[in-house]
Write a structure and sequence with these properties.
This protein is of the alpha+beta class and 361 residues long. The chain has seven helices and 22 strands.
Length: 361
């Protein structure tokens, strides 16, 4: 590439060069690539969510009690049959303010029994009556989610002297410096997508990263070693939240320390490949009760954590016209200068479809 005055001020896309970087240095970018552009610095999307079908009891109850306080009243409405233990109960009224269900005990011939504090209350179905009028509708509004775009920029600068002297193994010093800056910016984007905290102060914006997006299915390992049961429990949390209903493309993303822990699992829990001429083993897949999941090494995670992410629900999206580009600025004295700029956000759909294990040994 020859940088001359004809290129001054012109944007040249370097997106393809970013994607060709070493996959071990920016594995998340390599995994998900770049999505379609967004049009605002605050990128917003809307998510549908079904009414919950389960809650828990707050306070133990006798077999004769007909008022039951629950942790969340949203799943329930009048003329609904619910189940606690082996007992069916008919909900006759719901007080959303006090989270109290008025119920008929021992419904449909079941036996009323004492209810323990924290017992699960499961929605079964609504009681239908032949010839009844249309039931009152209920509506759950879509929830708005958003993330900020974040600017990643750096400057390429080469002095006249540096350009003139012989550089061992380098034929174009400016191009060489530009490639190094591209890697640095890609690493910054990778770190923001994983570790970022949503922040805005005037013209300064930072995106929220994966770690802070995952809020529902978070397991605290309390400094215990990673086990297959921990991963299975997290997968079950995703399953119970409906995360697997649309298939998905799930990856177990781990740092080097936890990758070694998984490699120590029994062979019935992992798929291993081994080249004939290479000692050692490489764990490719984790075999669980919920399917097989590819294991991806990413040392940009903390050493004590593990992510389970559906990459079909994750996208790095540029601001329109702000995909990574290089702009040559020309002579600025006895040096030439250029700038690299990109502006991106992380779109993270349905956070309940993902999981995180933290504080691992």
């Amino acid at each position: 590439m020859i940088y001359d005055s004809s290129l001054i001020g012109k944007k040249q896309s370097v997106v393809d060069e970013i994607l060709l970087l070493n996959a071990y240095q920016t594995p998340l970018i390599n995994l998900i690539g770049f999505g379609q552009p967004v049009t605002q610095t605050t990128h917003q999307w809307f998510e549908d969510e079904m009414f919950a079908v389960q809650s828990t009891v707050n306070g133990a109850k006798l077999a004769s009690d007909t008022a039951i306080v629950v942790a969340d009243a949203e799943p329930f409405r009048a003329n609904q049959v619910v189940k606690i233990g082996d007992e069916l109960l008919l909900v006759t009224a719901v007080n959303a303010g006090t989270k109290t269900l008025t119920v008929t005990r021992g419904y449909a011939g079941t036996t009323a029994a004492a209810i323990a504090d924290g017992a699960s209350v499961d929605v079964m179905f609504v009681e239908g009556t032949e010839g009844a009028d249309a039931r009152a509708a209920r509506y759950k509004a879509r929830v708005a989610k958003s993330n900020y775009t974040q600017i990643f920029d750096d400057t390429v600068e080469v002095t006249g002297t540096a350009e003139s002297v012989t550089q061992y193994g380098i034929t174009d010093l400016y191009q060489n410096e530009k490639v190094k800056k591209q890697l640095e910016l890609a690493l910054q984007l990778e770190n923001a997508a994983i570790n970022g905290v949503a922040y805005q102060n005037g013209n300064v914006r930072q995106m929220k990263g994966i770690r802070n997006w995952i809020a529902s299915n978070v397991t605290d390992a309390s400094n215990n070693a990673l086990t297959a049961d921990m991963i299975n429990d997290s997968l079950q949390d995703i399953f119970e939240a409906g995360g697997f209903k649309t298939g998905g493309n799930y990856k177990i993303i781990v740092p080097a320390k936890q990758k070694r822990a998984i490699s120590g699992f029994s062979n019935s829990q992992i798929y291993i490949t081994q080249a004939e001429n290479v000692r050692g083993q490489k764990v490719d897949m984790f075999v669980s009760d919920f399917g097989q999941f590819e294991i991806t090494l990413n040392n940009n995670l903390k050493p004590d954590e593990l992510f389970i992410v559906d990459i079909n629900r994750v996208s790095l999206r540029p601001l329109n016209g702000r995909e990574f580009f290089h702009k040559f600025l020309g002579d600025k004295g006895d040096y030439v200068q250029g700038m690299l700029v990109g502006e991106y956000t992380l779109e993270f759909l349905q956070e309940k479809a993902h999981a995180r294990i933290k504080k691992l040994a």
